[in-house]
Write a structure and sequence with these properties.
The complex is a heterodimer of chains A (about 300) and B (about 160). Chain A is of the alpha/beta class and about 300 residues long. Helices cover about 35% and strands about 15% of the residues of chain A. Chain A has helices spanning about 15-30, 50-60, 85-90, 105-115, 130-145, 160-170, 190-200, 230-240, 280-300; strands at about 40-45, 65-70, 95-100, 120-125, 150-155, 175-180, 205, 220, 255-260. In chain A, α5 (about 130-145) crosses α6 (about 160-170). The longest helix of chain A has 19 residues, at about 280-300. Chain A is globular. The longest helix of chain B has 7 residues, at about 25-30. Chain B has helices spanning about 5-10, 25-30, 70-75, and strands at about 15-20, 40-50, 55-60, 80-85, 90-95, 100-105, 105-110, 125-130, 135-140, 145, 150-155. In chain B, a hairpin with a 5-residue loop joins β8 and β9. Chain B has about 160 residues and is mainly beta. Chain B has a five-stranded antiparallel β-sheet with strand order 2-3-1-4-5, covered by helices on one side. In chain B, strands 6-8-9-10 form a four-stranded antiparallel β-sheet, with no helix packed on it. Classes of the chains: A alpha/beta (about 300), B mainly beta (about 160). The interface of A and B includes residues 8, 85 and 128 of A. The structure holds zinc ion (ZN). Zinc ion binds near residues 111, 139 and 141 of chain B.
Chain lengths: ~300, ~160
Amino acid sequence: MGKKNLISITDFTKEEIIRITELAADFEQNPNQPLLKGKVVASLFFEPSTRTRLSFESAINRLGARVIGFSDTSNTSVTKGETFHDTIMTISNYCDMIVMRHSLEGAPRYASEISKVPVVNAGDGANQHPSQTLLDLYSIKKTQGTLNGINIMMIGDLKYGRTVHSLLQALSHFETHFTFVAPPELEMPQEYKLFLQEKGLNFVEKREIDDAINEADIVYMTRVQRERFTDPMEYERVKNAYILRNSMLKDTKPNMRILHPLPRVNEIAADVDSNPKAYYFNQTENGVYTRMAIISYLLGVKK
Amino acid sequence: MAQDKIMEVRAIENGTVVDHIPADCLFKIIKILQLDKETHRITFGTNLESKRMGTKAIIKINDRYCQQEEINRIAIVAPMAVVNIIKDYKVTEKLKVVVPDQIEGFVRCANPKCITNNEPMQTAFKVIKGNDGEIALKCRYCEKITHQDQIEILK
Ligand SMILES: [Zn+2]
């Protein structure tokens, strides 16, 4: 088998997505499996992201591999004007896998063309963040028992939020029912709505969080950021419409769970945190098992 | 049909004639075919009358026979262009431009945050053909769409 990368969620088939969630469940049962003893994984954070980096590095350590790399580029040859091509070419000689985050979109895809070893995208600008998507899917499967036929309500910034786009693409394999709740400025882009239509999937669009929340199995929250609005008045007008409050949850389904890619700002009121349906902090723990699954699958130690 | 139009720009003995170019695309096609680096004699006509298109442009390149592959690049901006190969003042071959599935290296990605706009590297796109004949380019790297009216030809 040739070198396998994970750059975009569309690089994985439906079967591979399912397999990753199964492997993640296995790692959750047995978190310390030194399957990668003697291996070296490079963790290249051209753009800092402490949360994602530590989650990956925890996964690498639990698999028994060693980590090399950097958490920002201030002290590296990158600042000395070396091309990205040369940096990746060199580092791929030192390691068995590269995990990278970059502010420029497409950098990980380009790296995968240069590198001799597999590349995992840990986020490239507004483009893709596939390990986040897979951990979202694992969280859905774990809490709902299945990925099939889920009713999901996505709330907030559906235009720029890369996590909702990747999650939508992945869930399109599983006969998902979508409800989109967003202001006109931040609604789901046309290309994703067309994508769903081509796949024969239904979706409903709403401007506010209404009774439809009582049908949802998953409520997926995103940040509504002030800087996304051309008109600040418009932001002031809509910002409160996309805050989830505990009072909205009283008639929701017992199996319903609230997900959020974190960090949150104020889009989930603090009184929701103690509700058993709040799942966003458990989600982060699932991230480590999901990343163990991704790394071991790409390196071929788990099939 | 084309008799009177050909007269507007002098006929060539041998070479390639690119006809039915939308007038506003002439300079993009000059770049795509790298005619600015061409040493053969070239004649251009633009804002010519066209029954089919209103106005059009035409390019005549002496003593150079364009290949199908370079002609297909034109399709990205002018899918309705027609290319005639001329030998001894006669059209010996009529080439239809075919919209390719992939293109590499000569169009800029419209996304300023794309790696291709920040590193010395080639661009690459998947060509998406809409039902309305419109073309869009999906970047292999940043996965963003460059729409037909955003297409900028790289040097
Ligand atoms: Zn691009």
